[in-house]
């Protein structure tokens, strides 16, 4: 049985809190050097609810000149009041911000649902997580420490000497944020950058700027000095490109497509700024013959369809041992048909809309391509009627490695299932690794030895056992291959915004 939208006439704006309505009604400007500004050219864009097509707000957008002004403000703050704060003072501000976010959790949650389309339960978890992230990195800020080591031999032979290292902030960081989990991705960059002592310019996605603008208000209210955090809404081709290439930006952190990541690298070469990239994925899900089917079915359905498949770690390449293939597929179809599709604010909703009409057409194009290449569409794949950008989740079987739906990142609710017969772990790992990406993956088995042996063979930055996408604030996340450079979350996320300076001091001549 295939699904329809719960209620195509649902109006999201009509069902949000008065506080959210008040936020939507206010002006939405850039934040540069502590001031809200319309930008040099006064450009604007409209933000829409992807589930209904309703206009949410008009947002000011910046161009290259505004990026220049924001970078100038960030540099002045870095060289001025921000650098004068101790690690402990920065930690206090981060903790204060965590409390403020918790106090505004309902508004953040509703903005994420309205602007992005995600179901409310996901948005609520996301908002709880961003408060946790500021708390976590507040703790990290208090433990930024160097080390002591033996001085160089040629110095130590002549004199008493001391060698130690200092951890210092990289400087001005440009943070370019995607649309799929906007506030979470912004904060997983912003929190460690601030904890490290950097100042920043944030460029939200033009599709989903609203929750980040609310965060900008709270940053001012909680006492962050002017210029420490600057927010410039805008498009990638001007604001994003200028931020990546700016000669006075010391680091850029980008989350988005691999194709755009290459452009960021090219732009960053001008001053050889440091670059962190969290890019695409085509993650494998391997179901071994001894896997628990009752655990596997909801696990791999959610691995593929979570956030409508609009997440980089989605498990969209499913490898099922032939002994379980038919049973798992049959139960997957039944489980997927039970997932409610609708506006994210409707309590029953598990699957919301895709982000835009253009992205909807892209996903539908891949579904058509899968059928053209002789994959068997056993469930879903229909566009759903209404003003929103809804696509029913699609399940394909009979897939093979050369199909577009197997090779290419779709960023939508499309599952490609392949059956395998071997039990040779090297052969299974070779199938899982047959991709240019290496972001995530999962192994489903009751055998502890099989699980760890396969985990060791799969080339990905994160591999889970009997679950998928097990991310957390304290757990480093990033990819191999064309899934990116560097790690976010955890201590590694803080290290990405720190430089290491080695110091050797000759103290006195040896007696």
Characterise this structure.
- The protein is of the alpha/beta class and 511 residues long.
- The protein has 2 domains: 13-279 and 486-498, Aldehyde Dehydrogenase, Chain A, domain 1, CATH 3.40.605; 284-473, Aldehyde Dehydrogenase, Chain A, domain 2 (3-Layer(aba) Sandwich).
- 40% of the residues lie in helices and 20% in strands.
- It is built from 18 helices and 22 strands.
- The protein has helices at 18-25, 64-79, 81-84, 87-103, 105-116, 120-141, 153-156, 182-196, 210-221, 236-245, 258-268, 293-305, 322-337, 357-372, 404-407, 425-432, 448-457, 490-495; strands spanning 30-32, 35-37, 43-48, 55-61, 148-149, 159-169, 172-176, 199-203, 229-231, 251-255, 274-278, 284-287, 317-321, 376-380, 394-397, 414-420, 437-438, 442-444, 464-465, 480-481, 484-485, 498-509.
- The strands form 6 sheets. It has a 7-stranded mixed sheet with strand order 14-15-16-13-12-18-19, with helices on both faces. It has a 6-stranded mixed sheet with strand order 9-8-7-10-11-21, with helices on both faces. A 3-stranded antiparallel sheet has the order 5-6-22, with no helix packed on it.
- Helix 10 packs across helix 11 (258-268) and helix 16 (425-432) crosses helix 17 (448-457).
- The radius of gyration is 24 Å and the shape is globular.
Total domain units: 2
Give, in spatial order, the strands making up the sheet with the most strands. 14-15-16-13-12-18-19
CATH topology of the largest domain: Aldehyde Dehydrogenase, Chain A, domain 1
Overall form: globular
Instruction: Write down the CATH class of the largest domain.
Output: Alpha Beta
Mean pLDDT: 96
Unreliable spans are none
Number of strands: 22
CATH homologous superfamily annotation of the largest domain = Aldehyde Dehydrogenase, Chain A, domain 1
Number of helices: 18
């Amino acid at each position: 049985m295939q699904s329809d939208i719960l209620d195509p006439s649902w109006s999201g704006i009509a069902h949000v809190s008065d506080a959210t309505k008040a936020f939507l009604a206010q002006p939405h400007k850039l934040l540069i050097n502590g001031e809200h500004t319309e930008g040099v050219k006064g450009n604007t864009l409209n933000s829409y609810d992807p589930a209904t097509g309703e206009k949410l707000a008009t947002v000011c957008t910046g161009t290259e000149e505004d990026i220049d002004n924001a970078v100038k403000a960030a540099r002045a703050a870095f060289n001025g009041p921000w650098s004068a704060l101790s690690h402990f003072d920065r930690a206090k501000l981060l903790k204060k911000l965590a409390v403020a976010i918790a106090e505004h959790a309902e508004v953040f949650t509703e903005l994420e649902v309205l602007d992005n389309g995600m179901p409310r339960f996901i948005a609520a978890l996301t908002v709880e997580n961003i408060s946790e992230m500021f708390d976590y990195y507040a703790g990290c800020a208090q433990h930024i420490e160097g080390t002591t080591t033996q001085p160089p031999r040629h110095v130590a032979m002549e004199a008493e000497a001391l060698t130690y290292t200092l951890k210092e902030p990289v400087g001005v960081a440009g943070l370019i944020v995607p649309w799929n989990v906007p506030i979470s991705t912004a904060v997983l960059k912003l929190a460690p950058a601030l904890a490290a002592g950097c100042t920043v310019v944030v460029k939200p996605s033009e599709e989903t700027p609203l929750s980040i603008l609310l965060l900008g208000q709270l940053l001012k209210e909680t006492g962050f000095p002017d210029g420490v955090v600057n927010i410039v809404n805008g498009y990638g081709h001007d604001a994003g490109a200028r931020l990546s290439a700016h000669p006075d930006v010391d680091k850029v952190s980008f989350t988005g497509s691999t194709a755009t990541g290459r452009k960021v690298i090219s732009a960053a070469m001008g001053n050889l700024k440091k670059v962190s990239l969290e890019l695409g994925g085509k993650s494998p899900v391997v179901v071994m013959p001894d896997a628990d089917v009752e655990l596997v079915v909801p696990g791999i359905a959610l691995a593929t369809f979570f956030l409508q498949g609009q997440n980089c770690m989605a498990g969209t390449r499913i490898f099922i041992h032939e002994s379980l293939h038919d049973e798992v597929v049959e139960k997957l179809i039944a489980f997927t048909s039970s997932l409610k599709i609708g506006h994210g604010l409707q309590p029953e909703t598990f699957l919301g809309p895709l982000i835009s009409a253009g992205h909807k057409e892209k996903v539908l194009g891949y579904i058509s391509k899968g059928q053209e290449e002789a994959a068997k569409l056993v469930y879903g794949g229909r566009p759903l009627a209404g003003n929103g950008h809804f696509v029913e989740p699609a399940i394909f079987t009979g897939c093979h490695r050369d199909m577009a739906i197997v090779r290419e990142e779709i960023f939508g609710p499309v599952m490609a299932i392949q059956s395998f017969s071997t039990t040779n772990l090297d052969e299974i790992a070779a199938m899982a690794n047959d991709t240019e990406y290496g972001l995530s993956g999962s192994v489903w088995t009751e055998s502890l030895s099989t699980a760890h042996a396969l985990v060791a063979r799969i080339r990905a930055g994160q591999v889970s056992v009997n679950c998928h996408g097990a991310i957390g604030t304290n757990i480093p996340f990033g990819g191999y291959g064309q899934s990116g450079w560097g790690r976010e979350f955890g201590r590694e996320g803080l290290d990405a915004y720190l430089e290491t300076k080695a110091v050797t001091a000759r103290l006195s001549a040896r007696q």
